[in-house]
Amino acid sequence: MAxxxxxxxxxxxxxxxxxxxxxxxxxxxxxxxxxxxxxxxxISGSVGTSYxxxxxxxxxYAYLSAAAVMQISxxxxxxxxxGTGARTILIxxxxxxxxxxxxxxTLNGQTAVNTVNSYLRVFHIAALTAxxxxxxxxxxxxxxxxxxxGVPAVVYGVYTANNGATACVWTVPAGYTAYIxxxxxxxxxxxxxANGTVALLVRNFGSVFDTISQVKASxxxxxxxxxxxxxxxxxxxxIEIRATSSTAGASVTSxxxxxxxxxxxxx
Length: 267
Known about the structure:
The chain has one helix spanning 23-28, and strands at residues 2-4, 10-12, 15-16, 19-20, 35-47, 52-53, 68-74, 86-94, 100-106, 113-119, 121-130, 140-148, 151-160, 164-165, 169-171, 176-188, 195-203, 209-218, 223-233, 238-245, 250-262. With 267 residues, the chain is mainly β. The protein is globular and about 50 Å long. Mean pLDDT is 91; it is low at 1-18.
């Protein structure tokens, strides 16, 4: 049975035992050509009265202006090829032409290991294998510059055993249009009656960041929206969530979900 999605692309629904699988499930199963889905999440443990990106570094995220080799390191010597912590990680992102790339890196503790690829964007870091500890022993970084005690001078990606990859930023690959389906946030503060604002921002390629949507959040009221009509974002554009708080030291978690569809000429 043929169906149409919201982008006008004709899909072929798949029937199983007399039923038709929903379009969303088909995308998640990789059954719809040129369609992919991504859930991006981040956590910031020290949000103050100025906007910061929702990620573990508690700063406004700095984007690379040119693709660079990433240095992969850990704050713990146990994250190494023969260590008790994480042994190998998967890093994925975009190359200089905004095409998706990924690779596996074997860790060497606090000593940096260079990636084979050069990255214009770092999307995600995930531990693949580990020693007897069963998880990363420290915080794993992807970055550039001098590495001190396993921490690079400029950080572009972070992974921890408890929180996973922790940056609420994502860039639309070349040849695709992304559609923001939803975003959500959680807020926590030890200060009574504290509250925060969580903002969804988009920077179209060659332009500047623009706030698309904002929600209020507090200890008793978490924020988020599902868009009845998903927000279209063109190729090579950056999407990010930032937050601010009425008081220092607030904790904010956020996530957003996109479906990205290969442009007609690129199929």
